[in-house]
Amino acid sequence: MSRSHLIERKHQVIAQLQRARRQLEHVQGLSDPRSQRRAQELEALLAELMAEEHRLRLQIDRSKD
Q1: What is the C-alpha separation between 43 and 49, in angstroms, rounded?
Q2: Distance, CA of 12 to CA of 50 (rounded, Å)
Q3: Domain range spanning residue 41?
Q4: CB-CB contact of 27 with 38 (8 Å)
Q5: How do residues 7-47 score in pLDDT, each as one tens digit?
Q6: Residue ranges with strand state E in the chain
Q7: Inter-helix orientation angle 33-62/3-28, to 10°
Q8: 4-17 burial string, b = 16+ CB within 10 Å, else e?
Q9: Could you tell me if 5 and 44 are in contact, meaning their C-beta atoms sit under 8 angstroms apart?
Q10: pTM for the full predicted model
């Protein structure tokens, strides 16, 4: 993958992270069991996205494009 594609994907992941964080803040304010499950799902998604963003940063740093 070219450096420009990696950077583009990184920006997409950052946007997804921001949306997921906003959603998590919203559902954490709710107390029903469904919201608690959704909060757990969002926390898992955030962990995946943060890991992907980290991998992309490393790949971008290593790329010479």
Answers
A1: 10
A2: 12
A3: 3-62
A4: yes
A5: 999 999 999 999 999 999 999 989 899 999 999 999 999 99
A6: none
A7: 160
A8: eebbebbeebeebb
A9: no
A10: 0.89
Rounded Cα distance, 57 and 6, in Å:
8
- Residue found by looking up tokens 């993958």 in the block: 1
End-to-end CA, the chain:
10
| Dihedral Cα 22, 24, 25, 30, nearest 10 deg | 130
* Total domain count, the chain: 1
Q: Tell me, what amino acid is at 64?
A: K
Ranges of beta strands (E only) in 11-56 are none
Question: Is the sign of the CA dihedral 9, 10, 16, 19 positive or negative?
Answer: negative
